[in-house]
Amino acid sequence: MDVGTRNPPSTAEPYRWRWAALAVVLIAEIMDLLDSTIVGVAAPAVRSDLGGGSSALQWLAAAYTLAFAVGLITGGRLGDLFGRRRMLLIGLFGFTLSSALCGMADSIGTLIAVRALQGLFAALTIPQSYSIVVAVFSPQERGKAFGAFGPVMALASVGGPVLAGALINADIAGSHWRSIFFINVPLGVLAFLGTLRYVPESRAEVRPRLDLVGMALVSAATVLLIYPLVQGRELGWPAWTFVCMVAAVPVLALFWWWEKRVSRAGGSPLVVVGLLSKRAFSGSLVVGILFFAAMNGLLLVFALFLQVGLGWSPMRAGLEIAPIAFGVALGAIAAGAVLVPRFGRRVLHAGAAVMAVGAGGVSLTLRGAGADVGGWQLSPALLVTGVGMGLFLSPFFDFALASVEEEETGSASGVLNATQQLGATVGVAVLGTLFFALVGGQVAAAGDMTQPQLRDRVVAAGARPADAASLAADVNACTRARAEATDSDATPASCRRLAEDATTTAASAAQPAGVRAAVQDAAGTVRATAFAKIMERVLWSIVAILALVAAAVFLLPRAPREEDPHAEPNVPPEGAGPPGEEAQEHGVQEQQAGSLSSPSVQN
């Protein structure tokens, strides 16, 4: 390409506080990603305290990501209209307040509702972050600035479960699980004050109008798809759940028709209609939905497996996910520094393949170790899984935007981020539903395997064989009822019967303590064995999704998007100092197209 015809490099001085502004938006990103991933580890503790069924565990994650996906594109539009700094301040204030409200929630319904509110404020916050970075950094420095996002965001996303486990275990001032939300308050205050001090105001030079009809249609289509996926299993899959999911398709078609109509009329559609005609970009949407569904679904169900299935503490479960975080850091650094410049798109193929190998390795480990699996046995495969995540995550958004024209970048980045959140929501819904749907059959199979051992131990303790057989059946029924309970506060009838029969049998046995220990051990073994088998199957489902990801990557360009080093930046001068009221009115002006995509990861 002949670069001699391009604009010469700008001689304007770079914005003095640009690196401080970058630090501020990174804090905002970390808050979002922590909140997207911490609930997997915290969910069992929340359920134990506030009640709720298996769908409540899924909604704790899905309510946030669903609201985030629905509001994301509109959040970017509001920044273009009213100022990115102003919207960032409003988003940070609302996110911080809703985080505090989450920590004070007194019912599972209230917590889920406030989680959705968090997601909406995150949707107002995140789009401004990337536009601000574009505004304050020259094209020559943007690569370095955005290069900080990959490792930081990847570590924050998978480090969330580790932090959640540590906070719950610390039980600071008796806050228990509530501390995972309260931690956002000091971070939010810091980011808010940093925005006031260091972030300049910017708006789009050509200000779009809000497409309220388009926003309503895409929101309706998303809810029609996700709500029945999460709620259907617990309700027994009534007919209306399938009607809703089918109805999402024509609503999406109506949304696309409306967007084309708005574009032809010279309006401001939520999505630039020419984007989906680009094979590379439309392919990136397919890849993004599949990959983030696999990743976020894995993080949720694995955390549930460790706690609900194996009975591990939140701290131990969080630490067990640490190898994934370490692997993500290794993969992201290797991809950005060495592999992508040399091998291009093949790094994405390698990332999906390595992650699939890791997930398959975890499944094989569970097959071999079963209910007695330990953290040291799982760690090698989890490390490999994390490396695959990092290899894929770090360069993905640059590949996705490679075929997008400069004037389409703003819309494209909003759609990509919304797709990321939608994929996370679908993954939580589908894999979470599969996880709990397998409980009944696997508990029954595990119970059949452990019944002979339980009967032998009860008889050895001096009980009658008939009583031992009755206890074995009771253990199976109680374990299944506990796993499928819609209200964790209520004791299932089968568990009350087990307690009564165990007490009666122990009273008539020569060794009462032996009977009680046998029953307790059998219940734990049945639960752990059943959930280990469930996790095996879910992991192979994830491997299948990653195979689809690897195939869909062929739709992407061979090389990632690169910044034009000769483009003229439009940034505040060196001596401008931190922005004040005057900067809000006369600060950086930036085209909507300047918005770049987030390499953020989601729940």
Structure description:
With about 600 residues, the protein is mainly α. The chain has three domains: about 5-210 and about 270-440 and about 530-595, Growth Hormone, Chain: A (Up-down Bundle); about 210-265; about 440-530, no CATH class. About 75% of the residues lie in helices and about 0% in strands. It is built from 22 helices and two strands. It has a two-stranded parallel sheet with strand order 1-2. Helix 1 (about 20-35) packs across helix 7 and helix 12 packs parallel to helix 17.
Q: Termini distance?
A: 41 Å
Integer-rounded radius of gyration = 26 Å
In CATH terms, what is the fold-level topology of the largest domain? Growth Hormone, Chain: A
Uncertain residue segments: 1-11, 564-603
* Assigned CATH class of the largest domain: Mainly Alpha
CATH architecture of the largest domain: Up-down Bundle
Gross morphology is: elongated
Number of strands: 2
The proportion of strand residues reads: under 5%
Mean pLDDT: 80
Number of structural domains: 3
Q: How many helices does DSSP assign?
A: 22
Spatial order of strands in the largest sheet: 1-2
Layout of secondary structure:
Elements: H1 18-37, H2 39-50, H3 54-82, H4 84-103, H5 108-136, H6 139-147, H7 149-170, H8 179-182, H9 184-198, E1 202-203, H10 212-235, H11 239-264, H12 279-309, H13 314-320, H14 322-343, H15 346-369, H16 375-400, H17 409-437, H18 439-460, H19 465-484, H20 493-508, H21 512-552, H22 581-586, E2 588-589
Parallel strand pairs: 1-2
Helix pairs in contact: 1-5, 1-7, 1-9, 2-3, 2-7, 2-12, 3-4, 3-5, 3-10, 3-17, 4-5, 4-9, 7-13, 7-14, 10-11, 10-17, 12-16, 12-17, 12-21, 14-16, 15-16, 15-21, 17-21, 18-19, 18-21, 19-20, 19-21, 20-21
